[in-house]
């Protein structure tokens, strides 16, 4: 099956080779890499195998003339699950960007080191016996190194600044570019006129520091993104299509056409919307609607992509992907939500909005001041440029990315992926938390909740019936009955969509839906009609009085503690669920959440969010279902568990892994610490400016002072950011 | 002063050498998999092939 899938991702490589990238799950050590490279390398026709442990990906090349080697088959034989991957589709842009930045950093680093070497000689020569000719020679050599380096390594900043100016606003890159270009330009003039001061070293070391910050920023983000991409790609991407001749072949989901017949095995997610043709089964819609109670599907039932088949295999006819499908509706809502969200301006950009004009005004004032005092044009210009160099927001530009890098790394260790670049900043601002219920606060797995009402004998009987069924309620029953001696039964039969039956001491006993278990019994009419609509219950009959088993969705182990901790930190929590009112009410009560809303459609969830935003709230939305996706996109900032629907994970700013909710709290905590550090860093760089600017205006800033001040301020900002690594992980 | 005539070229040459080495290592993809590189040294056979060319995009 995998071969049909792989075709889609194969790219030509060179004249006569084909290339395929695979994401391989479970590759963790040298042994795994070795096994994969050796194993695949031994296959016929394979010319190149390279495993990448950082990205958990493997690149394979083979001769195109040969048949496609059985790559995924070989890998699964070796014990690895592999999924083809297309770097072109999934944003390999970041990788390329990272490499470009690293190259620029290397060039800037080389230039900075060598120009500094010459500058130090000039500085020490100023107080000793250096001749004017020697100094001029040194300046010329510096110029030869620095000018090409600035032209090449400064491009990321120049481009960004140009783009901002063209759009009619300024960003941090405008003063950076201006300072770098002016200092290089002025130094060139100084060099030509054999003057004393050249600022080549300042110009290139500025670039070096800034490029390091920018590279780390890109790197941290692309790492988190690649982990997220791997998670998504490892989901089943193939559908088993039943061909007209009756054979089954695997087809990528995006190549499904309306009218195709697909077979959906037990435990698989439906790859597309469709209508059931054959088979009776239960469908778990929790990821799509948030409803925990499985719905019965029989021929003629409409089923939706993303739902899971719990029971017997189904044959489904794919229906057109028209605008009436649920997915299309969700996508439409998401697009609308996205438009409403734009407009957040990052902290650094907000600062630079004031910073850049202020600095430029200051430089102009300096020039005018010197002219007014009767100095020549040249002196005035030199001092004005010195102001621009000294105020180049090097520390300011490092203040945010360095903290981001450290914080992203910390969160990654805890299984939290930061997907969006402004996510951390926004997370520090939140004042309200909205939770989805199913799959977010709960594990999405049912649990028996009325154990105290049930006799041991009944449970042992029900446990015996349920033991072999894969239905989630049966599995919950088995867990509840674990450790009990099970009753001896025979003739166990599973009735898809209805329940189970068996013989016990000569009687037929039934376990399952009420209508099935109590069929033809007098109790059927008077047994608790209030719950007759609630299908998350099983009835047991045939052994005496019918007995009811109620199930609720099990909460994540630390849900209560985390909700409490969030509330204690002054973050009110609201529950928004697509599940039934009474179930949501019970969950809310258990978690001490007073504000909740059940039976929400995706539209109602968005409406609740908008209402909160209209009140000036900044909402963190945490959800996993398809029905949460529009909300995740619309919210101020959003998170979703790694078990969430693909579309929700794509929409969310953060993804957390694992069974626990603790990462939510940890992320908020780290985000708040990060913001504090960022503000401290801003403080540091402003303090440095407060000292340096008056000196520059008065004309006391020599290249030596500029170099020392700039390095010192950058290093102090970096050191401050690294303090984040010293904070301990929150105790669980 | 004559010393400068050969000392400066030597200094620049060494720096340039470092830069070229760095650019070469970047071009041959040696920074693509830092975790893997740390583990590869544990492979037993010595004739492990280096990647024969940079991966082009």
From TrEMBL, chain B:
Pfam families: FixS. The chain crosses the membrane at residues 6-26. Keywords: Membrane, Transmembrane, Transmembrane helix. InterPro entries: Cyt_oxidase_maturation_cbb3. It comes from the Bacteria. Coiled coil: none annotated. PANTHER family: FIXS PROTEIN. This is Cbb3-type cytochrome oxidase maturation protein. It comes from Tepidicaulis marinus. The lineage of its organism: Bacteria, Pseudomonadati, Pseudomonadota, Alphaproteobacteria, Hyphomicrobiales.
């Amino acid at each position: 099956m995998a071969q049909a899938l792989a075709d889609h991702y194969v790219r030509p490589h060179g004249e006569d080779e084909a290339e395929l990238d695979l994401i391989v799950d479970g590759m963790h050590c040298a042994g795994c890499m070795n096994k994969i490279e050796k194993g695949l390398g031994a296959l016929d026709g394979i010319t190149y195998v390279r495993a990448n442990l950082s990205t958990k990906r493997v690149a394979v090349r083979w001769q195109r003339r040969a048949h496609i080697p059985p790559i995924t088959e070989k890998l699964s034989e070796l014990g690895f699950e592999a999924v083809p991957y297309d770097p072109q589709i999934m944003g390999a842009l970041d990788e390329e960007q990272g490499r470009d930045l690293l190259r620029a950093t290397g060039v800037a680093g080389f230039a900075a080191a060598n120009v500094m070497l010459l500058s130090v000689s000039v500085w020490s020569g100023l107080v000793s016996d250096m001749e004017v000719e020697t100094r001029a020679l040194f300046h010329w050599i510096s110029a030869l190194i620095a000018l090409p380096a600035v032209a090449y390594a400064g491009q990321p900043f120049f481009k960004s600044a140009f783009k901002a100016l063209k759009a009619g606003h300024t960003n941090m890159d405008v003063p950076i570019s201006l300072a770098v270009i002016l200092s290089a330009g002025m130094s060139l003039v100084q060099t030509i006129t054999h003057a004393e001061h050249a600022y080549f070293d300042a110009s290139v070391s500025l670039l070096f520091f800034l490029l390091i910050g920018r590279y780390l920023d890109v790197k941290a983000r692309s790492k988190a993104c690649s982990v997220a991409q791997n998670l998504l790609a490892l989901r089943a991407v193939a559908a088993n299509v039943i061909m007209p001749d009756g054979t089954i072949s695997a087809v990528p989901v995006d190549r499904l056409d309306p009218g195709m017949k697909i077979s959906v095995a037990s435990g698989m997610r439906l790859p597309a919307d469709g209508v059931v043709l054959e088979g009776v089964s239960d469908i778990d819609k929790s990821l799509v609607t948030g409803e925990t109670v499985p719905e019965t599907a029989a021929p003629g039932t409409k089923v939706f992509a993303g739902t899971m088949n719990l029971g017997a295999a189904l044959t489904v006819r794919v229906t057109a992907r028209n605008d009436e499908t649920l997915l299309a509706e969700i996508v439409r809502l998401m697009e609308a939500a996205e438009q409403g969200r734009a407009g957040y301006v990052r902290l650094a950009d907000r600062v630079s909005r004031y910073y850049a004009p202020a600095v430029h005004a200051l430089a102009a004032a300096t020039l005018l001041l010197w002219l007014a005092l009767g100095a020549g044009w040249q002196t005035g210009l030199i001092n004005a440029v010195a102001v621009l160099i000294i105020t180049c927001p090097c520390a300011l530009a490092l203040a945010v990315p360095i903290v981001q890098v450290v914080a992203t790394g910390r969160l990654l260790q805890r299984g939290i992926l930061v997907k969006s670049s402004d996510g951390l900043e926004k997370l520090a601002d939140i004042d309200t938390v909205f939770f989805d219920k199913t799959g977010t606060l709960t594990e999405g797995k049912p649990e028996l909740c009325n154990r105290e009402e049930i006799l041991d004998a009944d449970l042992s009987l029900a446990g015996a019936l349920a033991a072999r069924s894969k239905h989630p309620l049966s599995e919950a029953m088995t867990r509840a009955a674990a450790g009990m001696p099970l009753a001896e039964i025979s003739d166990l039969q599973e009735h898809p969509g209805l329940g189970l039956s068996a013989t016990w001491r000569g009687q037929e006993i039934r376990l399952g839906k009420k209508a099935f278990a109590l069929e033809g019994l007098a109790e059927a009419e008077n047994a608790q009609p209030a719950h007759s609509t609630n299908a998350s219950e099983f009835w047991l009959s045939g052994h005496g009085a019918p007995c009811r088993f109620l199930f609720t969705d099990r909460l994540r182990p630390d849900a209560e503690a985390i909700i409490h901790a969030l509330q204690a930190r002054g973050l009110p929590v609201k529950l928004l669920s697509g599940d039934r009112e009474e179930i949501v009410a019970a969950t809310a009560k258990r978690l001490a959440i007073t504000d909740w809303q059940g039976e929400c459609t995706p539209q109602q969830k968005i409406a609740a969010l908008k209402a909160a935003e209209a009140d000036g709230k900044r909402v963190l939305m945490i959800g996993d279902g398809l029905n949460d996706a529009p909300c995740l996109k619309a919210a101020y900032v959003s998170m979703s568990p790694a078990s969430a629907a693909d579309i929700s994970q794509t929409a969310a700013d953060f993804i957390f892994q694992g069974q626990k909710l603790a990462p939510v709290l940890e992320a908020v905590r780290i985000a708040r610490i990060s913001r504090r550090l960022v503000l401290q860093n801003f403080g540091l760089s402003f303090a440095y400016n407060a000292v340096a600017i008056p000196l520059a205006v008065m004309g006391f800033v020599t290249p030596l002072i500029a170099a020392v001040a700039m390095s010192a301020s950058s290093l102090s900002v970096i050191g401050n950011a690294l303090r984040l690594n010293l904070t301990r992980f929150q105790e669980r | 002063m004559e010393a400068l005539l050969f000392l400066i070229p030597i200094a620049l040459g060494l720096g340039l050498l470092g830069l070229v080495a760095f650019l070469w290592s970047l071009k041959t993809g040696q920074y693509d998999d830092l975790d893997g590189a740390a583990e590869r040294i544990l492979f037993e056979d010595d004739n492990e092939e280096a990647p024969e060319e940079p991966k082009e995009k």
